[in-house]
Structures are given as structure tokens and as C-alpha cells.
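LOG
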Amino acid sequence: MTRYIFTHTGRVVNIVHPDPATLDIRDVAHALARINRYTGHSDEPLSVAQHSVLVSELAPPEARAWGLLHDAAEAYLGDWSTPVKAQLVALCPAVQAWLDEWDDAIATAFGVERRSVKAADVAACLAERRDNGPRGLSDRQWFEGAGKPPPAVPLEPAPGRVVPWSADLSEWRFLLRWEKVRP
């Protein structure tokens, strides 16, 4: 079984047991800028990098760095939609431990503390859906369809309009935001 991926900057990363020393913020920004949210089911491609910048902007000051990096493992593992992730964890609870190992490696690699960014994440998701799809369900139905009860945070979208960025702009804005929020 192959346990390694090769990154944009030429690093070799063990996907089974991530080594923080092999993780690079440039790889995170590059990959997340090219991964679409909602498994591509939106009006226009919306990157995980753009979502991460929005979450970071909406998070409280002490959580802004983790808000930017909360989905960073997806740069190495790909983006699993919430229903897919919930199903995989239900079928194999060890998947959650593996994802936690990744989040720990990300936090260590970049010197940030894992913090709750759920309210900011929900507000970003709702704004993204409002402005770019996918549509068809109420916000509560959407969360329930993802296999989770609606979060215990206000179901209010972020203010302003979410206009999808190009991959290059997403990567640049992600790195710019990192320079602003990094510890």
C-alpha cells in the first residue's frame, strides 16, 4: 500500500502518520485553492482555500489562525463532503482518530492551537450556499441531510456576498491571510 504523496513543493508526506516537519503552508494553500467545496455541486467552483479565508475572517481573534487551517488536512487527503465523512466515521470509528491525528500534525507544524471555529464555519457555509449553491433544502434540512443535527450555533450566514475566486487568487489570498494571522 502506498502511504506517501508528493506535494507541489516536492515534499514527501506520509498520509497514514503525518509528520509535521513535512508539511508546508505553500502546499496547503496551493492544494486547497484547487479543491472545490460541495463536491463541485455549486454554481461556480468555490475553493476550500477561499472558504478557509472566510472562516478565518469570521472567527474570533484567538481562533483566526485555526480558522484558516481548520480544513488544511484536505490539502493532503482531499475534501470529503460532510455526509461522506460522517458515513466513513460511522463505519470505522478509527477514521476520526486518524483525522484528529492530521489536525494535531497541522497544529504542530504551523504552531497554532486547535480552537472551535464552528460558528464561523457554519456562517461561511450558509453564505456560500446562499450565494453559490447548492440549493433546494432549508438550512436545517441541509445539516440533517449531512447526517448531523443542526449545530447549536445561530444559523445566520456571513454578511456580504461570496463571489468565487480563481485558484491563483485563492492561493494568494490564503497565503496573505496566513501572514496576517500566523502566531
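LOG (cont.) second protein
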Amino acid sequence: MRIDPNQIWSGDNQLDGVKTPASSSQPPPSGATPGNDALDSGDTVELSGALTQMQQLNAQLNQVPEVRSDRVAALQQQVEQGTYQPSNEQIANAMYSELFGSGTGS
């Protein structure tokens, strides 16, 4: 199917076979009310609370800073002044944590 962008549509711009209750010339079937066609088709939609929960968690995550700038500034100042002297145990714990995801907690 090829779509011609130069095609000029006149009259009703609705898709073939799609009619709104206002344009329908036939009365609705008995028991049906105009605008309830979706309910009569048997299709249903159920939304779980997972989407809402995900949106709330995402909003909370966006409020958490990616970098603890106060801690970074303090360490940067210590490094610049030459006073940052981590112990061998602190270095080993940081390396262990980087490799395995958790430190020894000391």
C-alpha cells in the first residue's frame, strides 16, 4: 500500500468501517446505548498497581542525588591538602566492595 501525501481528502475523514453514534443511520441494537460499543465488544482493560508504584519509585529515585557532593568535596579537599591517608584496610575493603559488591563492614 502506498500513501500519497498529496492526496486531498474531502468529506468524512473517518476510517472505512468506523462510525460514531452521531454518524450512524441505524438505531443501536436493543439494550445498547450509544457510546458503549467498547463495552459490548467483550474487550476489557485492567491496569495493575505496578505502573503507579513504578512511577512513584522513579520519582523518589529522581530526588536522590547521583553524587554525594558534600562527601566528594570533603575528600577532594583532603586530597588537595595532602591529608587524605586511607589505611590499607580501607583500601582493601574498597577494592573488595568494587569486585564483589560488599565490603567487610570494618
